[in-house]
């Protein structure tokens, strides 16, 4: 598995409670372009929201079973979870990780806003606006 900032964020959400509590308010599923990563984020955030604790690998596996996933997506999600679990001891410098997560969120927010603006200009936006 290639370690990306998205995967680093997801892994740390599962295995670094202090980090999770700091970044959860800023993470949005639309910041993750990969469908499996979006689903994993959704499952992790739902668990943390409901139980006020970081999830176990098993709890995410069960949450994934309740999602309507294609078999290939399910297998990829399980594979990614296994990689996270096998590398849970990988420690990133806390300051670096927080800085990179903040940068990731800002960059994705700007990118998404630009893309939405382009869609509005092209008349393809899903956002409905009404003129008074």
Features:
132 residues
Description:
Helix content is about 65%, strand content about 0%. With about 130 residues, the chain is mainly alpha-helical. It is globular, with a radius of gyration of 16 Å. The relative contact order is 0.15.
Unreliable stretches (pLDDT < 50, length at least 5) are none
Q: For this entry, what is the oligomeric state of its chains?
A: single chain
Structural class by secondary-structure content: mainly alpha
Question: How many helices does DSSP assign?
Answer: 6
Largest sheet: none
Strand content: under 5%
Task: Give average pLDDT, whole number.
Answer: 91
Q: What's the β-strand tally?
A: 0
Question: What sequence of helices (H) and strands (E) makes up the elements?
Answer: HHHHHH
Task: Based on Cα principal axes, name the global outline.
Answer: globular
Query: Rg from C-alpha positions?
Result: 16 Å
For the record, give the distance between the C-alpha atoms at the N and C termini, rounded to a whole number: 51 Å
Helix content: 55-70%
Task: Give me the secondary-structure topology.
Blueprint: H1 5-15, H2 17-23, H3 35-51, H4 57-65, H5 71-86, H6 94-122
Helix pairs in contact: 1-3, 1-5, 1-6, 3-4, 3-5, 4-5
